[in-house]
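Explain the record.
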Amino acid sequence: MRDHIFDALTPNATSERNLREILRGGYCTRWHANADMAHIRETLAEHHARVAQIILALHPSPSAALLDAALHHDAGEPRVGDVPWPAKRDNPALAQAIDEVERAARERLGIHINLSTIDKAYLKLSDRLAGYMHVQHTAPHLLAQRDWLEDRLAIELQAAQLGVAPAVSRLIEGAS
């Protein structure tokens, strides 16, 4: 029998959540294929929590579906690994294939993400910002590299489009 909180979070789900496997997958380590970051530990669960915290701070009224997506958006990664952003950026066909495998893996876990366009934008911003903030905290010297400079510009553009640029700038700059 489904727990009522999962029913509220996944009203269109057709399969039971495999909570045991979701929790196990949370121990998987991110950044393992990034030579500059592989030695710095961040689990999938830690990343998911940061994304949810950022959404709660930035979104004026986040839906249960958006928070659920924040807590599970990379739950398919244990199936394929954390493929580095530059590899996906430089090979759209690879990115599409990985996205499909991860989506299928999430669905096997009972996770079905179906967001509005605006919520997808908040999830993408929060995901990127969580990664950026992790690097800022653990390896700030890397932020001077071209890829990270470009990522910061993309984050700032997304934040401006969503009307949350001042809050994002304060977070990145360390102002409260």
Remarks:
- Confidence is low (pLDDT under 50) at residues 1-14.
- Residues 4-173 form a domain with the Hypothetical protein af1432 fold (CATH 1.10.3210.10).
